[in-house]
Amino acid sequence: MNRLLMDGFGFHMRYYAHPLNLVVKDGLKLAHTSISRVRNAIRFVRSSPHRDLKFKECVEYVGISCKTSVCLDVSTRWNSIYLMLDAAEKFQTAFDKLEGKDEAYRDLFEVDCP
User: Fold this and answer.
1) 65 in any annotated domain
2) InterPro entries given for it (predicted)?
3) Which one-letter DSSP state was computed for residue 91?
4) Residue 74's beta-bridge partner residues?
5) Pick from 46, 45, 42: which is nearest to 86 by CA?
6) Is 94 a member of any domain?
């Protein structure tokens, strides 16, 4: 039964999760502006069925054949930021098309859209 090295002393991960979470959050502070802009763009798209439909039209127009959609991150799960950015990157050309098509989307951002 006890075949682990040192009876499994170094395999207990509970104590490593919190420091790892703090390191990741500290590193993400460097990209906070970019991440929040992507988050706001996704919130805009998902805020109403009309905007979601307009975004889906842009997705079809640029020819993205991805079965998933953009998703927001969860503040308590730092790996969800990666999932949000990964999904948003796949739809980058659709967001560019939406920028030219929807004035409210352009007005959401003071400078350039993400």
Assistant:
1) yes
2) RNaseH-like_sf, ZnF_BED_domain_contain
3) T
4) 77
5) 42
6) yes
- Does the pLDDT of residue 1 top 60, yes or no? no
Give the CA radius of gyration of the chain.
19
List residues bridging with 77 in a β-sheet: 74
Give the domain extent around 99. 11-108
Gap between the Cα atoms of 12 and 38, Å rounded: 36
Phi, psi for residue 20 in degrees, rounded to 5: -65, -40
pLDDT digits (tens, 9 = 90+) for 11-48: 655 666 778 878 888 888 888 888 888 999 999 999 99
User: Which residue's structure tokens are 């999760």?
Assistant: 17
- The tokens describing 68, both together, are 């998933």
Closest by Cα among 29, 36, 37 to 111: 37
- Each residue of 82-107: pLDDT tens digit? 899 999 999 999 998 998 888 888 88
Tell me how many domains the chain contains.
Answer: 1
Question: Residue 42 falls within a domain, yes or no?
Answer: yes
Q: What are phi and psi of 83, to 5 degrees?
A: -60, -40
Place of tokens 């109403």: 48
Q: What span, in angstroms and rounded, lies between the C-alpha atoms of 100 and 64? A: 17
